[in-house]
């Protein structure tokens, strides 16, 4: 469900922050502490500098950027909640950097930090929800550290006083260097938190897609444009706002499409997205005279988890299963949740041997998977092993259409279940049969 109302206060002791692994908790609190220190120093510097206090023109620029940031967030709130939930174990990117970097060119660091606070405070109230306040605080802290680092680059390049918009080759070089610094610092801090919070997450998954990071780069570039216009032609900024809002949809369209086809409990593709992706991939394979592998897997004793620990614990275990499956597939493979506890993996261009190899990696990982869950009695329990049965099929070896391919994989899956579960069965044109091996061909 997309949160569009006002968030209610949740006491800090109830934040999910405290359930993080110890290294991740220390890392997050450490970044937050450094951001608070930078904030205090920035405020002190503004109050005691050569030109103590904030100039009226800077207050005006701050007001414009704050209002623009809020309007931007409000216009996009309908998709931002779903996009973040789909981000799972990879960086969640947005265009807040646009207004923050514009502020870096126009405002003292203390007001830039105030702008970050306004942006993330409004996001918490109107967009993201009350249970992830610690994540918004950490994200705001990464923005503060990235902004402080970029501000240091601007000053090192000789751009001491605001506005610091590029007016020549050297100033442009300095601003670009500040942009790169801002991106690198923010990105590195977020990746560190992801890897420490989810030790099972792969480095590839934590880095996310290149297209996601291009969104951030685009936001920083637009920030330079907004800063230059605000410094020279402030009355043009409202017109540029219309352009920014229009670009927001186009820049985030790939992410929006992924979010719209993402299961909110697992971060995997939805059945509807899956149903549209399979025939498209089969058509592509036909034109290229290639193959498409399909894995259907069903968790063997998932009902026992729900009955023993409660449905929230079952959801947590299901999400951990989804993360494990995605960690073992190849780049470009599609993992979907097609039923309550049934997943499917589409492997373009895979041979039968490659499909079975992927299935065995997933089977072994799920057999040893350890998940910490909160039970219905507010206790913490550890689930060890979430085994699954697998059915494999390859186009065009055993099927010529989507329905035939899915049916072949489903039949192989049922055979694996009947053979004792936690097994992998590969479909053949004839009805499958099972041997004693964990990987069998039929």
Automatic annotation (TrEMBL):
What Pfam families does its record include? GGDEF
Superkingdom of the source? Bacteria
Q: Which terms are listed as keywords in the entry?
A: Membrane, Transmembrane, Transmembrane helix
Q: Which CDD domains match?
A: GGDEF
- Please list the GO terms describing molecular function: diguanylate cyclase activity
**Mind telling me which residue stretches traverse the membrane in this protein?**
24-47, 99-125, 137-157, 169-198, 210-229
- Domain named GGDEF: which ranges? 290-429
Protein's UniProt keywords contain Cytoplasm:
no
Identify the PANTHER family for this entry: DIGUANYLATE CYCLASE DGCM-RELATED, REGULATORY COMPONENTS OF SENSORY TRANSDUCTION SYSTEM
Q: What is this protein called?
A: Diguanylate cyclase (GGDEF)-like protein
Protein source organism:
Kribbella voronezhensis
